[in-house]
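pinned: reference chain
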Amino acid sequence: MTVFHDGEHGKHAVTHYKVIERFGFVTLVECVLETGRTHQIRVHFKSIGHPLFNDNEYGGDMVLKGLNTATYKKFIHNCFKMCPRHALHAKTLGITHPITGKKLMFESKIPDDIQSVIDKWRKYVEKKEFDVED
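pinned: its structure tokens
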């Protein structure tokens, strides 16, 4: 899966996103999809240099930005252990039932592993100051 900019390859896909909270070098975002392509969010964020946290298929399982210290790297790897998968969650999902045509909406809370990592980042940034241009 990849992004093509020539318009001749691949399928049209649109992802809208907004920043919810910044944690130094990691950012919590909300996405709204116009299309539903396979791995759409993961591919789009990798294409702009911001792969999903702990996404081993698209490069988010490496320390790409941040402080070049053993302490920072240990912090990141501890976060990876707390959430041993890519940090992607569908809070709201809406579909039209294929037979009845009825619109169905589903909501779920952020899973505990992702919430734990968010909380850990909040505590970390309260104690540290980041040079996000690093």
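why pinned: The CA atoms of residues 42 and 52 lie 6 Å apart. The chain has one domain: 15-127.
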